[in-house]
Design goal:
372 residues; Rossmann fold; alpha/beta; ten-stranded mixed beta sheet; four-stranded parallel beta sheet
């Protein structure tokens, strides 16, 4: 768990944006050095300055923190946005500072636990911003969406260009994340991804390009809203989420079940499926050809895995379309088989991992995949 720092951003009467540690702000403000002239006739007792909402920044690293030298910290990122001080007060926590491919399943659980702690504490923030590398950003967002009970916004954002590059997009993405976190209509959003002025649902968002600024999309559903220059605009028909109960309660869960992804392709044999079973996998997600297809030897290996009690979920490698959840065979083999619906292989893995913490029953698993 990282150290939490409080940062208060203020703007002096001459318009220069500065960011100071809270302790210095309190020291000098009590000395009257930052007293500002009140409008004529105003009574300081009756016209106190409004208290800005608090936003908690959970920094994990990623391209948004990358420079030619050392990585920027969460404190550095917030200090680089003096204009954000007109929108919110900030507390900053350095959760990690790594590439997103280095984040572990244990850290996922710790992150969900920490955000739950923040939202259920005595002074909860209006929202949490998670700065994150883009390579696995969609997976972290979906995991948090499934494991957090609160609907307050958890905005996962990052950058496609490192901080030291010309045209770095990190500052704009972070500022827009702040704007969304304090938005009056964002209190039921839950976990979302904000990149390139667009707000995406955690379940559907995918990274579709290795380097372009518009690298994220939500196929089939589109963005939940946009961060325009004048305001954040959310879709008016957003469904109200169920708040107060997480889809999966991780209380008492110390380790997530092992679930592996195996790709189908022309000429593939069952070696990787059999290896996953031998390594102790409790579930296998097949990134199938077409609508759930596999090669003959892969199909034979899938049957062997199911005979060993391993659950198999068939998704598609195509990037769009469904593998019907109920398309799996209903037989007497110990391991269930079902389709992933429209989930990508990586999202199907997350859902299966979490589902296996509660059940391995075929009908219950199908119900979970139909609902989530």
């Amino acid at each position: 768990m990282g150290t939490v720092r409080t940062i208060i951003a203020w703007r002096n009467p001459f318009g220069m944006g500065l960011v100071l540690p809270a302790v210095l702000f309190l020291l000098f403000s009590t000395a009257g050095l930052f007293a500002q002239e009140l409008p004529h006739g105003a009574d300081p007792a009756s016209d106190p300055e409004p208290v800005l909402p608090r936003v908690h920044v959970l920094a994990t690293g990623g391209t948004i923190s990358n420079t030619e030298g050392d990585r920027l910290t969460g404190d550095d990122l917030v200090r680089g946005l003096p204009e954000a001080g007109t929108l919110a007060r900030f507390t900053v926590e350095q959760f990690s500072n790594v590439a997103s491919g280095a984040i572990t399943l244990t850290q996922w659980m710790e992150m969900a636990s920490r955000i739950h702690e923040l939202f259920t504490g005595d002074d909860p923030p209006v929202g949490v911003i998670v700065t994150h590398g883009t390579d696995t950003m969609e997976e972290t967002a979906y995991f948090l969406d499934l494991t957090l009970a609160q609907c307050r916004p958890v905005v996962v954002t990052g950058a496609m260009r490192r901080a030291s590059m010309a045209g770095a997009d990190g500052p704009a993405n972070l500022l827009n994340a702040v704007r969304l976190a304090v938005h009056g209509e964002a209190d039921r959003l839950g976990a979302v991804v904000l990149m390139n002025d667009e707000i995406f649902p955690a379940r559907e968002v995918v990274k579709v390009h290795t380097s372009r600024m518009n690298a994220f999309e939500a196929p089939g559903v589109g963005p939940l809203g946009v961060a325009d220059p004048d305001s954040v605009v959310l879709r008016s028909h957003l469904a109200a989420g169920e708040c107060g109960t997480a889809a999966f309660d991780l209380e008492g869960v110390h380790e997530l079940p092992r679930v592996e992804i195996v790709h189908a392709h022309l000429g593939a044999d069952g070696t990787l499926i059999r290896a996953a079973v031998a390594a102790g996998a409790q579930g296998i997600v097949l990134a199938s050809v077409g609508r759930g297809g596999a090669t003959p030897d892969q199909s034979a290996a899938i049957r062997e895995a199911r005979e060993a009690g391993v659950v198999v979920v068939r998704s598609s490698r195509t990037g769009a379309g469904r593998v019907p959840v109920g398309s799996g065979m209903r037989d007497d083999l110990p391991g269930a088989i079902l389709g992933a619906g429209d989930l990508t292989p990586q999202k199907a893995r997350i859902l299966l991992m979490l589902a296996l913490t509660t059940t391995s029953d075929a009908d219950q698993l199908r119900e979970i995949f139909l609902r989530l």
